[in-house]
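Data card: per-record layout.
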Amino acid sequence: MTNRADLHTLTGAYATDSLDDAERAQFEEHIGQCPACAQEVRELSATAARLGLAAAVVPRPALKEQVLRSIATVRQEAPRTEPGPPGGTVPRAPLRRASRWALAACLAAATAFGATAVWQHREAGDARDQAREVQQRTEELASLLAAPDARTRTAKLAGGARATVVVSEGRDRAAFLATGMAEPPRGKVYQLWFNDKGTMRSAGLMDPERTTSALVMKGRVGEATGMGVTVEPAGGSPEPTTKPVALLDFPA
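The structure for this 252-residue chain is written out next.
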């Protein structure tokens, strides 16, 4: 039986349907009496739904066997503990914040799974450097997607591609999620742009080797009313040189 203090840490597991029947029943009884946990479940579920807009990348068949072999040989890091306050009172709010960002980071990492699989075959030093870089991008993306004021707009693109833009007015940032985009021509790259009332401002480049992406656009939203995507030479251009392959207005 899970104690009352532990119940506050199960919001992420509940939102991702990771509890057994007994735990689920106990937690559902708990959130009926705990508005804070009920609100957090709603936020985490919304975050998972936004991330679900980006299609998962199918890993190579041998990866599952490789991971299962590693489980028996890789030592699990012991959980960090902090001394509790007098009287054994559990600090509930920090636990909720920790579970929220941990879940969001894990969900966002799933959208970048295709990139992380490549690390398995690179030198350890390079893999660690890339892991840190992707972790930073993942945490930034997860934080934006979990923002209380995050708004989304989704559109179908040519060729069956699907794109979603997420905007947080409070954070003054935007994210772009796309799936099924055609590979750009050799030596070319997709470049993102903020649409400042007709003037296009560079917002970063997509990985030319991936047709599914989830990334925070570079720069502040500012006065931008929408965004666009064009095909540009490798390294990008200071201004668009081709007709946009995608134009999306930001959600109102």
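Known properties of this structure: The radius of gyration is 21 Å. Residues 151-249 form one domain.

See the next section for split statistics.
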